[in-house]
Amino acid sequence: MYKQNFKIILSFLLIFLNTIVFSQKKFTIVLDAGHGGSDHGANRTYSDIGRIAEKDITLAIVLKIGRMLEKNKDFKVIYTRKFDEFPSLSDRTNLANRSKADLFVSVHCNSSVRPTAQGTETYVQGPDQNDTNLEVAKRENDVIYLDEKDKQTFGSYDPSSPESLIALKLQQSKYLESSLLLGGLVEDYFVNKDKRLSRGVFQKNLHVLRMNAMPSVLIETGFINHPEESHYLASEKGQDEISESIFNAIIDYKKAVDRKSGGAIATKKPEPEKPVEVPLKNDFRILLMSSPVKHNDNDPALKGLNYILPIKENGQYKYYYGVTNMASVRDINLKTAKDAGFRNAFAVGFMPNQKLSSGYYTIEVATGKDKLSSNSFILQTLKDVERTKENGIFYYTYGKVYTLEDAVRLQKDMESKGIKDTTIQKVYK
Ligand SMILES: [Zn+2]
C-alpha cells in the first residue's frame, strides 16, 4: 500500500519535473550583425543623409529583432556583437556551435556595381557544402542532437560508426530543409508585408553558413548603393519594418518546428510517426532552361543561382541546377529555381553511374570564330583535342567517357589544371 502510494507520488513528481525541464528548454537563437569595427562592410555617402555603412545598419536591425524576441520567454537570444566591434567569422560560428543554438541568423546589406540592383535575398548553405558541414558536425560531436525518432533508428552517437555517419548526413539535410523554410518565410514577409522586391532564396557557399552545425540563414536586407533602397535601409521606418519581418519569420519558423516535433511542451498524445526520408534511386537536377548560347557562372541569365551544370546536347546548352537524391531537397531546389524566375523549370531524374548505351560524353573546352593557336594554353596542356567546324565556328572537345559522373570528374580535373568554363557535351552516335 505504502509502496503503491510512493510509486504514484514518484510518477507525479517525474511528470512535474519533466514539465519543468521541457518548459525550460528555450529555443536558442544566435543573431549576427554583419561586419563591425574596422570592417565597415558596404558603404556609401549621400548628399542628404551623409555616409551610411553596412555595419551600423546590420547592428541596428539585429538589436531591434533581439528586443522583440527577448520579450518572448520561449527564446534565448545570443548576439555575436552588440557594439561596433569585429568578431571574426570563426568567433561567430564557434559561439553558435558552443551555445548549441537552434538557429543562426546573419544580417547584411548588399552592394553592386550596378546602381539599379535592388531587393532582398536570403542565403542558405549550398549543396556542395554538405561535406564541410559534416566535418564540422563530426568535430563538434557533442552538438549532435537527434530527434526522438532518429535516436530510435540510430541509437547513441559514436563518431566511428557508419550508422552515426548516416545519422549525421540525415541531420545535414534537415538543416538545409529548415534553413530553406526560414529563408522562404523571411522573403515572403519582405514581399507581402513590406512590399519589397525579393530576389529569392539562394544556396551559396559562405563561411558563416558552412561552419555552423544548425539551421542558418544570411539575409541581405537591401542594396546600400541603390538611391532609394539605401535611404530605406538607413531610416528608422525601414529598419523597423525589416526587423519586424525577420522577427515574424522566426516566430512562424519556430511554430512550424514545434508542430513537427510535437510541441515544445511534452504532450502525452503520441504524434503519428513520420518515417525517416529514404533517399531516392535516382539523382535529380532542376532543368532551368535550354539555350543555343553558352552562359558561364555569374552570368545574369542564370539569375544568381549557383551550382549549375550545363550539358550540351544537339547544339543546345541545357542548364541544370543542384543535384540531390532526397525528394524534399529536390522539391525545395525546384521552388528556389522558380522563385529565382525560371518559371518553366522542372526536375529531371538521372540514374547514377548509368553508362550510355550509344554515344559518349566529351568536354567542350573552347569555341570561337578563330582557330586556337598551337601554343595556346589549352592545346599545350591537353593532348588529342578534337576540332570541328560548324557554321563558321570552331568547336574544340576533349576526352571520351560513358557516364555523367566520369564527365564531371574529367571536367573537375581539367579545372584543376586551369582550364575553366568548359561544358560537358553529350554526343549521339
Ligand atoms: Zn555584408
Automatic annotation (TrEMBL):
<dbReference type="InterPro" id="IPR050695">
    <property type="entry name" value="N-acetylmuramoyl_amidase_3"/>
</dbReference>
<keyword id="KW-0378">Hydrolase</keyword>
<dbReference type="InterPro" id="IPR002508">
    <property type="entry name" value="MurNAc-LAA_cat"/>
</dbReference>
<dbReference type="Pfam" id="PF01520">
    <property type="entry name" value="Amidase_3"/>
</dbReference>
<dbReference type="GO" id="GO:0030288">
    <property type="term" value="C:outer membrane-bounded periplasmic space"/>
</dbReference>
<dbReference type="GO" id="GO:0009253">
    <property type="term" value="P:peptidoglycan catabolic process"/>
</dbReference>
<protein>
    <recommendedName>
        <fullName>N-acetylmuramoyl-L-alanine amidase</fullName>
        <ecNumber>3.5.1.28</ecNumber>
    </recommendedName>
</protein>
<dbReference type="GO" id="GO:0008745">
    <property type="term" value="F:N-acetylmuramoyl-L-alanine amidase activity"/>
</dbReference>
<feature type="domain" description="MurNAc-LAA">
    <location>
        <begin position="93"/>
        <end position="251"/>
    </location>
</feature>
